[in-house]
From TrEMBL, chain A:
It is found in: Cell membrane. Belongs to the binding-protein-dependent transport system permease family. Pfam families: BPD_transp_1. It comes from Micromonospora globbae. Residues 85-274 form the ABC transmembrane type-1 domain. InterPro entries: BP-dependent_transpt_permease, MetI-like, MetI-like_sf. The keyword Cell membrane applies. Keywords: Cell membrane, Membrane, Transmembrane, Transmembrane helix, Transport. GO terms for cellular component: plasma membrane. This is ABC transporter permease. The chain crosses the membrane at residues 20-44, 89-115, 127-144, 150-167, 198-220, 255-274. It is a multi-pass membrane protein.
UniProtKB/TrEMBL annotation, chain B:
It comes from Micromonospora globbae. GO terms for molecular function: dipeptide transmembrane transporter activity. InterPro entries: BPD_transp_1_N (IPR045621), MetI-like (IPR000515), MetI-like_sf (IPR035906). This is ABC transporter permease. GO terms for cellular component: plasma membrane. Belongs to the binding-protein-dependent transport system permease family. It is found in: Cell membrane. It holds the Pfam family BPD_transp_1_N.
Amino acid sequence: MTALENTSPAARGRRRWRRLNASMLVGGALVALVVLAALVSFVWTPHDAVHVDAAHRLAPALSDGYLLGTDKFGRDVASQLLVGARTTLFVGIVAVGVAALVGTPLGVLAGMAGGWLSEIVMRANDLLFAFPALLLAIMLGAVFGASTLTAMIAIGVATIPAFARVARGQTLGVMHTEYVLAARAAGRSRLAIALRHVLPNIASILIVQASVSFAIAILAEAALSFLGFGTPPPTPSWGRMLQESQELLFSTPRLAFLPGLAIALAVLGFNLFGDGLRDWLDPKLREHR
Amino acid sequence: MGLYLLVRAAVLVVSTAVASVVVFAVMAVLPGDPAEVALGVNATPEAVAAKRAEFGTDRPLVTQFLDWVSGLPTGDFGVSYVTSDHIGPQIVDRLGVTLWLVLFGMLTALVVAVPLGTAAAVRHRSVGGLLLSGLSQVGVAVPAFLAGILLVFLFAVTLRVLPSGGYTPLGEDPGAWFQQLLLPSLSLGLVQGAVLSRYVRSAVLDVMREDYIRTARAKGLGLYRALWRHGARNAAIPVVTVLGLQLATLLIGAVVVERVFTLPGLGSLLLDGVANRDLLLVQGTVMVLVVAVLAVNFLVDVLYAVLDPRLRGAR
Amino acid sequence: MTRPLARLVAVIATVTLAITAAGCSSGTSGDSATGSSLSVGFVAEPANLDFTSTDGAAIPQALLVNVYEGLVKLDQDGKIVPLLAESWEVSPDRKTYTFHLRDNVTFTNGKTFTADDVVFSINRVKTDWKVSLKSAMDVVANVEKKDDTTAVVTLTKPSNSWLYRMTTRIGAMFSRDGVADLANTPVGTGPYKLESWRRGDAITFSANDSYWGTKPKLQKVVLKYFKDATALNNALLTGGIDVISAVQAPESIQQFSDTSKYEVIEGTTTGEVVLSFNNSKAPLNDPRVRRAIRHAIDHKALLDTAWAGRGQLIGTMVPPTDPWYEDLTGLYPYDPAKARDLLAQAGQTRLNLKLRIPNLPYAVASAQVVKSQLDAVGITVDIEPLEFPARWLDVVFKQADYDMSIINHVEPRDVTAVFGNPDYYLRYDSPRVQELFAKADAGTEEEQVTAMKEAARIISEDAAGDFLFLFPNLIVAKKGIAGLPKNLVSESFDLSVLSPSEA
């Protein structure tokens, strides 16, 4: 892990603004696009995304007011993609939220406490690491029935170790800085130190982790929907759109191509944004990645 | 070193034990009585009771757990409720398919990542290098099953040069075996290759700054040759450890890829087991996958220790 | 590009080409339709090979008629014809059946088939079988051997359905020494015997050299199983299989439009895709609500979107291949206004219904159309896909914890089982219908047809379920394969009549 430099945070911050990099801009733009699509879908979609219309099935793009055409149910593809963005973001936010809310305190605790407590937390973490999202989701899906909720929880729980590790690593670094040492000498409580000094200092790297985890969550949701363990119909989900249009790959490739592209762009966006953010926060690493 | 390994091995054993409890517990709350499922609808209560006794599901959970877990070390996973077959041999049989897939997937990843990552590092300041980096980012963003669907569409359905799926054991027909594994391995490996190439890039970048490379170049060696002669081993250390961690990802990714290509591997066994409510089969399959991941992590830890003795004390 | 890099790319390209070329030269793998072997793609793999203890259509589909044979079987037109019994007589009171058996039949374990095996097999249904279907044998009072080639079965009451059921798996003849390992080692008298079974992949049958009847034209048949509809299609496109036994992605059928290479066979099955209602539970215990739903569904649009227009609208639980079929699609024409009226009468203007479906392609597709169409009349539907078979069987079938479901009732002549038993998961309890079924079973052939027709009409009028469409028999095969059935009338897929293409 990268040790934090001794320069004051404020000074570093001023310099950062001049280093906004391409990864961050491109990634940020893609992420913004997905967020925008999701937000727009709340107030407006060109058509009802789930309305079945036998008379207009498989309409080509740019016909009858269907910008991207319709699928075999006669549903508007553009509307489905917009609402699908909402599903994707929703799954990502809940999954990453669960992971961050559980993983971060565990990591900080392990980093601050050290000793056997740290050891236990990290070993439990390793154990959890052995239950990948897909495996958890299939197990949960088998027990409770596949739903968006089981998928989100499975992905979230499987992502906890990533947050705990990063949080612990960063906390270890922060614990040796002068201001934390000073606070400890002043007799501040551990909780106060964690809240006042540790969390603010590791927040940025956690945001990087969140962005990368978000990308992984999107991929996991798509794979689960493909296997039938994800978002149930008819709620539009990019993964299921892809799965449903597989039989039409031969005649109407657009139906599989568009959701595939949406998934890839969203993942690319979050990955690039995370990478760019990391470089921006820590210029020394820039050459490396 | 010895102590470190001992501790790591103990952790592995304890983790496996805890994992077995977790897996059993999750499966125990699974709705649906296996006896009733096996007998189908309208079964008489007596028949169900008899079947429960036959399966042993009428015993207390703790007894069932101990019975199950004590068989694991010897590869005895119990007898399936659905097929009445021993599960152990089935898992071994399917594991064979999955391991080949994972192995080929890993080779694909290496074949993709090493040249791509090296080139991206060497040319990291040029447009070409930037493009290669971008290419790897795009590769990372493509789900393995999508890659699979596209590869089938291209190579099997359109070009008709490779089969679209299925599996022939190596012993029956090595040619068919290889052809049938090719596309699945590619779909699994290409994406992981893209991930790995980014680590290769940064490892090569590190090595390029080292003095010995500069010296070698000063002696007139070309950059690639210098890297190959003097930098390869040093760059390999981080790459190999990442590759180890990726093994786990490949193992799980195989579940999805097996579905796309109808490969009778561990993943299809797991999904079939879930569909048929073959409790013991699901339990056994999940356990094998989890232990595989734990074992890989253990090996990576050991590798760390062997490659870098300084790490012995830490973590 | 620097030179070393260019060289590297060239190397990779060469290797890739070499590999693909190797793939090309040795041709695509899999059994092709050459000589006397065929491979047929299926969707549902049997969990084991024992239909005496395990439910599900996949086992008899593979084994019945091919490996196991009964005394009688159904021909292509759905008529009962001799198989292991050369002929039979029915007593005037229609309670005693005398079967005259063929004398040249042997099991694949070498034993000769005699009347003792008939007695053994029929009694074994009552004593050892564990599936619910075994109740079809309850009506048998006694079975005895008269001599080696004559068996006499006595029923407790006249029953038309009994002889018919004898054509299904219930009537399969087992060897007295061949039931030790039914799950893995079937022993029958059929034209094929099990050669191997690679779980999760394929079952291989080889011709039974000592078969008593016309020897099959194929030495070997491979039944290949696919979880994924697209993978099944791709297998035929790339030569991995020769026949798709049942297309699961009908939209893709135009991939096979090249008539010089492929042949598409389309006919009927005995599978009625039913939108089943929980008739005993509010709000669907109110016939007005059920009728409203039937009026709210545009069946033509549903079939067109959900199953690419393949299949037939029937409006009843009886397939066209049964003698008492009647087209009842006119009973509930698409009429959303009337549906709203009925809902208003029932005081149910803001309904919320749970649609719990098996996670099978036809059900998932149909459910989305049903939801959208019911939405239009003010009924909110929550779709919940359940893992099939286990979870669906448990939640819907066993516990009847559902409002509506969608399932393809595939068993032949299942209208009596589905609507004649108030404990069945649709919980439909009509004394009049039950009475008619009893009358049909006991009566003459003519009485049977009349009574069944009336019962089926009452069921449809009552809106005990909505009959979405008749599942099509949709087979795609390589050009020139003969013997594929146009209509499926039984629960088996007869492989013995297939013959390979000339190519």
